[in-house]
Amino acid sequence: MKNMIRCALFVAALWVGETKAQRPLNVNSGHSHNDYHQNIPLLTAYYAGMGSIEADVFLKDGALYVAHDPSEIKAGITLKKLYLEPLAGFYRQNGNRPYADSTGRLQLVVDIKKDYAKVLSQLIKDLEGYQDVFNSSKNSKAIRIVISGDVPVPADFKNYPDYISFDGRPYTTYTEDQLKRVAMISDDIKNYTPWNGKGNPTAPDLAKLSTVIEKAHQQHKPFRFWATQDSPNTWIVLERLGADWINTDQPEKLKEFHLHKDKLSYTNPVAYPVYTPEYKVDGLQKPVKNVILLIGDGMGLAQIHAGYIANHGQLNMSNIHNIGFSQTAAADAGNTDSAAGGSAMAIGEKTNNRYIGVGADQKKRTNLVDTLANYGIKSGIISVGDITDATPAVFYAHQVDRSMSSEIAADLLSSKVEILLGSNQKSFLKNKDAALMNKLADQGFKLNTSAAGFYKESKGRQLVLLPDTATRPVKDGRGALLKEALVHSLKMLSGNKEGFFVMAEGAQIDYGGHANDLPYVVTELHDFDKTVEAALRFADQNGETLVVITADHETGGLTLLDASAEKGMISGHFSTNDHTNIMVPVFAYGPGSAEFRGTYANNEIFHKILKVIGLKNKKKK
């Protein structure tokens, strides 16, 4: 029982993010297992920055051949030609060190398959011309030679030159002098667990794995498991256990994993509080006067869950009961872009990628903003990105290509939107139509070029063109612009007798997905979720407001690999820098929210909004 308790305590400590590793692992912590089986032996691992490269050898006709089995031996494929000579060239080219980066280390692990005495004798001869390169006993920057496989008994280590080191075993007892010749301790992971690299080992197996690593560390030796699964999840678990070398047959993938580690993990030490809705009118079939549509651009389930974990197991949107799923495919492709995805919600039908507020036939469609305006319902469009970019543009513009920023800006002249807020001043202030701003003023728009200026307004049509610096990422100091702009827009529009529609976009969740940057994604999602809180609070106070939260598509193919809600820590992996076809969630709160349950095409959101507002029972103005 005591052992079980100790084991449980160990697992609890391990999986909240503690690690017994002697140092953080990096690219140079990789061990290229059976390196000679790579399509390009040595060079693949070397250019990936591996700190350990392994070659199996056999002695034949006075030469050391690199092969896993005698049947694989081929003429000219020797240790000297394939590894020693090229490594010596790199070493000298780099100013007498293994890598150009002075912190890079390198060991060549020579795995002897049989006849260690004869093999070692030949190896010593092969190394005679490269004493400066491989003599780590005299030069700490030299490439270390480590013997593995069929090795001498520890008592015979002293019979070999001191530049020869050995791969030790945890079950072997070494004297103090013998231990000095041991470069690392290694063992087959299957001796401790049947774990297949998925999830994590059982609690008893975790304890075994940790114990054998800790024993090596107590001897001041690095530890390596062989026969491990070769996957990011395995690498994460081994690092958290404290392993010093990571076995891999995929040096380049391990390199990518480590190089982008700072972009693939995020820890939020302090959670922000979330709002618990009142649910008084949630789901009731009663008249809806106002609709707040919040679009988290690029926000899929993985992004939401990453934000949930990073906020210590809570989000405002996770307190919403009515949830559905939106299918995001475009009319002309399985994967949508923001133009087609946003247009589907804005005009009520699927269209082609890059199209802004037009059907697949390139003809203009009446969008949600203008449809509602016919009934006296006023609208606001808010984004923390470029206001002429696809998602906000589809609610006021009609163009055949999302790149037509100048034309999109000019389309505001024919839109009935009341408030438009976002960045990209240039497309308006330096538009192809030099008279655009005067024309917009004639349409009743008042220009503000700062959020602070907008917050002083209380009535009238508003065009808020922010400098690009105002919509910089949250992680770079943007602040609560989205939430504050929504709150003020609601204040301005809520006085309208016929009601309002507001679309607010968390634009940069998508930016983070395209950049494969998890901290970027999560910080933007948290900013978006705080905006959700403001919408929910308003809905509770108002009683006639429906809040709909969704995305135009998922971006990045995000997969979550490791998490601790207790510490607010999340790590993940992206499969693409593009959008994916995966369904996105639809959260709905307030009267009529039950209408948004189920699975449906994204263009149905348009029709559902019109249905809950009950336009059939309203008179056109």
Question: Could you write a compact summary of the structure shown?
Answer:
The chain has 621 residues and is of the alpha/beta class. The protein folds into two domains: 22-259, Phosphatidylinositol (PI) phosphodiesterase (TIM Barrel); 290-616, Alkaline Phosphatase, subunit A. α10 (301-310) packs across α20 and α19 (508-514) runs antiparallel to α20.
Fold and architecture overview:
Keywords: Magnesium, Metal-binding, Phosphoprotein, Zinc. It comes from Pedobacter steynii. Belongs to the alkaline phosphatase family. There is one protein chain. The chain has 621 residues and is an alpha/beta fold. It has two domains: 238 residues, Phosphatidylinositol (PI) phosphodiesterase (TIM Barrel), CATH 3.20.20.190; 327 residues, Alkaline Phosphatase, subunit A (3-Layer(aba) Sandwich), CATH 3.40.720.10. 31% of the residues lie in helices and 20% in strands. The strands form four sheets. The protein has a ten-stranded mixed β-sheet with strand order 15-16-14-13-17-11-18-23-12-24, sandwiched between helices. Strands 1, 2, 3, 4, 5, 6, 7, 8 and 9 form a nine-stranded mixed β-sheet that branches. A three-stranded antiparallel β-sheet has the order 10-21-20, with helices on both faces. Helix 1 crosses helix 7, helix 10 crosses helix 20 and helix 19 packs antiparallel against helix 20. The chain is elongated, with a radius of gyration of 31 Å. The N terminus is likely disordered.
